[in-house]
Amino acid sequence: xxxxxxxxxxxxxxxxxxxxxxxxxxxxxxxxxxxxxxxxxxxxxxxxxxxxxxxxxxxxxxxxxxxxxxxxxxxxxxxxxxxxxxxxxxxxxxxxxxxxxxxxxxxxxxxxxxxxxxxxxxxxxxxxxxxxxxxxxxxxxxxxxxxxxxxxxxxxxxxxxxxxxxxxxxxxxxxxxxxxxxxxxxxxxxxxxxxxxxxxxxxxxxxxxxxxxxxxxxxxxxxxxxxxxxxxxxxxxxxxxxxxxxxxxxxxxxxxxxxxxxxxxxxxxxxxxxxxxxxxxxxxxxxxxxxxxxxxxxxxxxxxxxxxxxxxxxx
Length: 315
Ligand code: ADP
Ligand code: MG
Hints:
By secondary structure, this protein is α+β, with helices and mostly antiparallel strands. The strands form three sheets. A seven-stranded mixed sheet has the order 8-10-7-11-9-12-13, with helices on both faces. A four-stranded mixed sheet has the order 3-6-4-5, with helices on one face. The radius of gyration is 20 Å and the shape is globular. It contains eight helices and 13 strands. Strand 1 (25-27) and strand 2 (35-36) form a beta hairpin. The protein binds adenosine-5'-diphosphate and magnesium ion (MG). The site of adenosine-5'-diphosphate (ADP) has 13 residues, from helix 1, strand 4 and strand 5.
């Protein structure tokens, strides 16, 4: 039997009680719309939907982890623009067949995952929608962020000569990172303060696939150095016939930052060691429209834009 509206309302009241007041939020959960203060500058808006069986699997992920991921992927999009996340709307399609969780009711644990991730990044949940059906779990999170005028970093500003950087290490996220990652919000803001970011994207589809988004939007090509691609331990541990490098280039859901800067800024980034996390210079932007991989011996191969196909269920 589907939960009735009364239990949905009760659930929403539980969610409402879990949210702390924010001075920027004039009206949060409980009215027809949220009312928030708009600062000077620009508002960033994005939404991401997670589907059971595609982006997570109930046999390998807890409700809390799924909640963290649902907000985390949105925070990562705000980070990719070098913005500060502020407000989120959480929409849930819940089934009464959802498994019970150690820490309590599935939906409450899911919401707790979202809420705790929001708290880490000073983001307030200001509303959403809760519906019931007997289909798979669907979670949609919409997010709003802020950035000063002229400070949003798009995908379209890469120019030949730029150095290409990536944070963290890549590949094999299916081993667990895709459920347990830190969106690079603070790192993006730190980078924006210290250098001019010409183009940026978060690595969600895979390094090469996401780099191609920058190349297409900027009308340029790139050449990557095989020896400088940061391969994660998880990528190195997968035994499926594909090399660790292939995993690092093609797997998705790393949620790292991929960006380009001028060589001067690039040198400063490396010398000053400005981030508390790993930062790798992986290549440079060139004229053209393709992505080349320079092997350790100097040989070049063209990388196709194959990305990761979202399907956790079949891996
Ligand atoms: P309405 O009929 O006006 O859409 P709802 O009953 O759907 O109102 O929602 C009541 C309030 O609860 C609204 O403020 C809405 O934004 C909020 N809300 C509903 N579901 C969620 C959720 N999953 N997370 C956060 N807030 C929610
Ligand atoms: Mg509604």
